[in-house]
Amino acid sequence: MDRLGIPAPTLLEKATAWLYSSRRSSSFVGVFLVSTLRKVHIGVLMFATACGVGLWLADMPIDDIIGGFPLSILVLLVGVTYFFAIAQSNGTIDRIIEVALAKVGDNAAVLPFVFFALTAGISAMGSPLGGLVVAPIGMPIARKYGMDPMLMGLAIGTGLSAGAFAPTSLFGIVSYGTAHEAGIELSPLTLFTVAVVVNLVLLLGAFVMFGGSRLRQRHVALATEIGSRTPSFVTSIATGAGTAQYEGDVTHRIAGSRLDDGPGPRHGTLAEREPFTGVQIATVICMVGLVGAVIGISLAGQDPDIGVLGFAFGAVLTLIDPKSGNSAVAKIDWSTVLLVGGIITYVGVLQHMGAVDLLGETAGKVGVPIVAALIICLLGGLISAFASTTGMLAALVPLALPLVATGDIPGWALICALAVCSSIVDVSPFSTVGATLVASVAEDQRARMTSLLTRWGMSMVVIGPVALVGTLVVPAMVL
């Protein structure tokens, strides 16, 4: 017995276990660091490291290691990105963007909310960063209407964050898919609703702070202004391009767009364009059918397999238009599949070794569960402001599970709070979203935009966790 009354062997075993687990956890962070410095795909490194650590340090059979690869999430990602890649290939998404913008008219006051909805809709189509296609359209329009570019930028940023948590989009798939893998009951529609409400509140705050109430109706022909000046890459990143593939060059391509240069050559207005083709009409019907099926099955108390639904509707469109279906296969988001799969496989190895449980116990030793939840959300927001949000969701959701296992905090509430906190900071200019918004404004506004987005993004690191834990987690614990 030692002085504290703890048997010496037990104390030694605990110390050894802590060192063992912490070293394995540090290797997890090390892989993130190496992949960032060397600019290589983190999913590939994670999977390879998971196999090495599992075989040589955890004595796990290779079948058990590979069995940790999340096949259900793979089906979700492939099915959804395949379906929306078809919609991109046959031009349906381009036409939807054009029609939506043409309906705005000349009411400047509604533009932030229109671009929020438009960005959210595109972001919900599988790949969140697809919503960035409206940035080089929205910024010049904001300039023409005398709107603060910060307001337009935040409308696009919040819309992207909201749509990303749709049951058909990446952040939503990773968040609720990982939660389900761990046995946590989390409705995809609940997560989506929380994300939409939070981001709408942020947009309303931006509307007040950046002159939205002073906007007046301006009689400018919006359709004539944008005409056919939509960039040729407008839907190339909307679906299936792969986060790792376009994160590095999207800012360059947008910065090179003529949309910042003022009036330029126009080759016709929206009104002069051809109507929807038969294939595009069928695609719109399938898109509505996919969303309707998800909502209907959820309301019926069942758990919709969105990946399977994506494959089903994708198969219908492939039969209608084989050319678009075949080209869509190459646009499946394999990069994100590898990213999420590698991280979750490694987290599975860490769970087997007890490292994840140790981190949960450490958070639990804070003494107050709500403080532990706040710390986890703060970490999620801070890291995500500089790194891949998808990677953070795949890594941090499992690390929050031991805290949920104590029964003190409802799992669905904590996962929703953690996921949204990791997303609302993405307008930071240190991330792809923020950098794209800065690159999309006129050159004389970029320094101001960078400064304001930095302040906004860093403030969300604190405001987001405090607000979400206070309004979501605390009430869920009481009720």
Number of helices: 24
Radius of gyration from the alpha-carbon trace, in angstroms: 23 Å
Q: Which whole number gives the mean pLDDT?
A: 75
State the shape: globular
What is the H/E string?
HHHHHHHHHHHHHHHHHHHHHHHH
> Helix/strand/pairing class, anyone?
mainly alpha
| Beta content | under 5%
- How far the N terminus sits from the C terminus, by CA atoms, comes to 44 Å
Total number of domains: 1
The helix content, as a percent range, equals 55-70%
Q: Give the biggest sheet.
A: none
Low-confidence blocks of residues: 1-22, 217-272
**Counted beta strands:** 0
Protein name: Citrate transporter
Transmembrane segments: 40-58, 65-85, 113-139, 151-177, 189-210, 276-300, 306-322, 334-354, 366-387, 456-478
Keywords: Membrane, Transmembrane, Transmembrane helix
Domain Dicarboxylate carrier MatC N-terminal: 28-164
